[in-house]
Structures are given as C-alpha cells and as structure tokens.
Amino acid sequence: MFGALNHVVWDYDKIGKRNKKKDDNHLNKHAMHLIRLFLMAIDILEQGKIKTHREDDTELLLKIRSGGFLKEGGTFDAEFYQILEDYEERLKLAAQHSILPKQPDLDQVEAFVESVNQRAIELQSCSNNGKGGSL
Largest Cα–Cα distance of the chain, in whole Å? Predict the structure, then answer.
C-alpha cells in the first residue's frame, strides 16, 4: 500500500507520453484524493478502521480540491509537498507500529467471502422471481 502511494507521489508532477497533464480541476481532484488515501491508510493501520467521512479533514481536502495549493504554472506549491511529505512519514510510522495482525485470519476471510456470495445468490434468486434468469 505504501509503495503504491509513494509511486504516485514521485510521478505526480512528471509529464510524459503516458501521463499527459490534466486540467487544473482534475489535477486538484487527484491531489485531494491522494491526501485522502494517505489519511485513510493511516487510519486503517493505526485504528483498524476504514473512515470514509473525513469530517476533521474537510477544510484541508476542500482547499486542495479548490486549487488552494496550485501555482499559476499548473504545479503545486511547496506547502502541498510539505503536507504530502508529512503524511508519507506518518504512513511509514503507522505501518511500522500498526495494530493490524501480521497475517489475516484466513478462516474468517473465507467465511466472510462465502457469506457475501451466498447473499448475492439469494438476492439474484429473489430478483429473478421465477423469470428463468441465470447467474
């Protein structure tokens, strides 16, 4: 997870054949999502929770989304990169001291997947309601 986020960060301002420059609105949106993903990853590692509603981070995320860190040339200012660096460091520390187990409980994962599949089959069966549909 950390490697993938880190790769995005290093390539973020590089423009080449494969990553044409986005318009400012899309660039800001991508930057906001990058920070949000860092925040969510830190929450998962530190608290074991997936927190999608970012109430405490709304002001920062909206500032990024609205272009508050974008320079006229279409790149981000030093303050944005400092924020990014701070979250990278927090993510490294969270990964080192995570409350998550080193290995998942595969029996529990398998049981969960089985229950999801069973519910999907039941819902499909109910929605067909004798209409001869198939999965």
Answer: 62
Q: What are the φ/ψ torsions at residue 123 (nearest 5 degrees)?
A: -65, -40
Average pLDDT for 112-126: 93
Q: Which pLDDT score, from 0 to 100, does residue 115 have?
A: 97
Q: CB-hemisphere CA count at 13 Å for 12?
A: 24
Partners of residue 70 on adjacent β-strands: 76
The helix/strand/coil state of 99 is coil
Residue with tokens 């508050």: 68
Four-residue CA torsion sign, 35, 37, 40, 46: negative
CA angle (6, 11, 15) in 5-degree steps: 170
Q: Is the pLDDT of residue 13 over 60?
A: no
- Alpha-carbon distance of 120 to 33, in angstroms, equals 30
